[in-house]
Amino acid sequence: MKKKTGQNFVFGALILMVSNVIVKMIGAMFKIPLTNLIGLRAMAYFNAANSIYVSFYMISTAGIPVVISRMIAASNTKGNAKEVKKIFNIAYYIFLFIGILGTTIMIAFSRFFAKSAALPNSYYAMIAIAPTLFFICLSSAYRGYFQGLQNMVPTAISQVIEAVGKISIGLIAGWYCISNGFPMHKVAAFVILGVTIGVAAGTVYMHISKVMYNNVLKAEIPLPEEKTLPCRSNKSILKELCLTALPIAISASIMGLTNVVDTMLVTKRLMFSGLTNDIATQFYGAYTSMTIPLFNMPPILIYPFAISAIPVLSAALVKNDFKKTKGTVESTFRITSIISIPCALGLSALSYPVLKLLYSNVLIEGTKLHSLDIAAPALSVMAIAIFFMSMISITNSVLQAWRKENKPIYATTFGILVKIISAYFLLAIPNFGIMGAAISSALCYFTIMSINLYFVIKTTGYIPNIGRVFLKPFISGLLCTVVALSFYHFTTGFLSIKISVLIALILAVLVYFVLLAFFHGLYREDMILLPKGEKICALFEKLHILTDSGEK
User: Fold this and answer.
1) What is the rounded CA–CA span in Å between residue 158 and residue 228?
2) Residues in Cβ contact with 347 at an 8 Å cutoff, skipping those fewer than 6 apart
3) 3-state SS of 308-342?
4) Would you write out the chain's pLDDT as a tens digit for each of its 552 residues?
5) What is the distance between the alpha carbons of residues 48 and 80, in angstroms, rounded to a whole number?
6) Where are the domains of the chain?
7) Where are the alpha helices (DSSP H) in 427-518?
8) Own/partner pairs for 229-234, CB < 8 Å, 24+ apart?
9) Residue pair 134/201 in contact by the 8 Å Cβ criterion
10) How far apart are CA 67 and CA 74, in angstroms?
């Protein structure tokens, strides 16, 4: 049987990127009108339940999919299909157990979690979303399998199915509940059922994809030498899965605690600063429904490269192809900077108009403040952390590929401690308020990124070239942000805010890539990896905007 080669690194990443952009667009179509539909109180209950779910999700699924993809990539590189199948089967049953256990625990302790967050009625929503853990665990096993084969299509399609299920069911449920006068905590519970149903549908699709893939394999005749390839024992595979996945799971779980810290501290500490429970709940709802979703959008463009890099780096390391590993690391760092830096600078500078473009500016009941008065300043701070968060995902992937999964544990542990301490004190200061949550998150991500970079340099010997990787995107991003901000302020006198900010954002993108080309920030090594890379390079060479990494 011919070894399955899958897509190349950047092509696979692009598939995931496109799907993630679609998913995030659908998510925006979901959360933005949902916030406008059901209000800040119901969204506070929704987001409290979702943050607890995400923490369980990170604990349950963070480690094993990465390890599955890496182990399968290594076995597939050797052409050992039998071992690939065995790795998946063992991982599947591990996930089945974890999914059942996680769902049970979340349901059993839902009231405790809700009371700890000072949002006691949010337990209804927590129960509604708990079964999602079971389905997402099974789906993660399938995703790790296909990603190990560098086939990103099933993962991409399943993510879109999940998102479509969430928006269609969630918005219909929200409209129905509001129309019939349901209390806000029950509105949140019915809305969040859309997440559970969407993930269940995505899991069914992944199972069907795996069955169809198996049928294709059965139709192929294996080569004689493949039958004689040695296959590792169940014990050996299980040991590597557990020992390798554990540090990744611990690291991811600690990272997932950032949202839990906000859930457990924001409302309580804001009440300590003198706010009532109702006002603090609305502040929490504005922050988690308006600031956090926009902060999470740009990094989603980076995650596909991080996921796709792991099997490619693992396969290259198995072959001792250090030139390819270095080139892949260089490309991922550079692409990360090109995407994340302008997003961070632009969103920080244009936080208020961007939020105004998407959300209704509702009055916070019991105060003279509006929701954008809470969300926009927090987004200006959080936006800078987009770069930190993006670099964390890439450095984690590099360390995991080098089998240094334990290193991010130290970084995330220290980072979460910074988050807890700074949030605890800043949230209770009246002049900081909800800004304390944003500042503490930015400090947390900066800390983790810095320590991770140290470990990457120490482990791989790769030191990012400041000019090629960071400086050119920064200068281009800074200048395009100045252009966009100037255009916005100049045109708001005779154009509506929404039209002005839309044109400003489009202008910023155009100016950014023109400047990046002018500063020789588009590299042949990156373009050649893209689908039709030779043709892209030929076109860019005619325009004289392509650079070899050694030229500038």
Assistant:
1) 35
2) 294, 295, 298, 354, 379, 383, 386
3) HHHHHHHHHHHCCCHHHHHHHHHHHHHHHHHHHHH
4) 444 444 555 566 566 666 666 776 676 667 788 888 888 889 999 988 988 888 887 776 666 677 787 788 778 877 777 888 888 888 888 889 988 998 999 999 999 999 888 888 889 999 999 999 999 889 888 888 887 777 778 888 888 888 888 888 888 998 999 989 898 889 999 999 988 999 999 999 999 988 887 766 555 545 444 555 677 777 888 887 777 777 766 766 666 677 788 888 998 899 988 889 889 989 999 998 899 888 988 877 776 666 666 666 766 676 776 677 777 788 788 888 888 999 999 999 999 999 988 888 888 888 888 899 999 999 999 999 999 998 998 888 888 778 787 888 889 889 999 999 999 999 999 888 899 999 999 999 999 999 999 999 998 888 888 888 889 999 999 999 999 999 998 998 788 888 999 999 999 999 998 888 888 777 776 666 554 556 777 777 777 677 765 544
5) 45
6) 9-464
7) 435-460, 472-491, 497-518
8) 229/78, 229/79, 229/80, 229/82, 229/83, 230/80, 231/80, 231/82, 231/83, 231/86, 232/83, 232/86, 234/86, 234/90
9) no
10) 11
Tokens 């100016």 found at: 511
CA-CA distance, 149 to 152, in Å (whole number)?
Answer: 8
Report the length, in residues, of the chain.
552
Question: What is the chain's alpha carbon radius of gyration, rounded to the nearest angstrom?
Answer: 24
C-alpha separations of 23 from 18, 29, 294, 348, 551 in Å: 9, 10, 13, 23, 38
Dump strand ranges (E) for 10-56.
none
Token match 């807890």: residue?
A: 420
**Alpha-carbon separation of residue 536 from 434, 472, 477, 549 (angstroms):** 46, 21, 23, 17
Please tell me the distance from the alpha carbon of residue 279 to that of residue 267, in angstroms, as a whole number: 9
- Distance from C-alpha of 398 to C-alpha of 391, rounded to nearest angstrom: 11
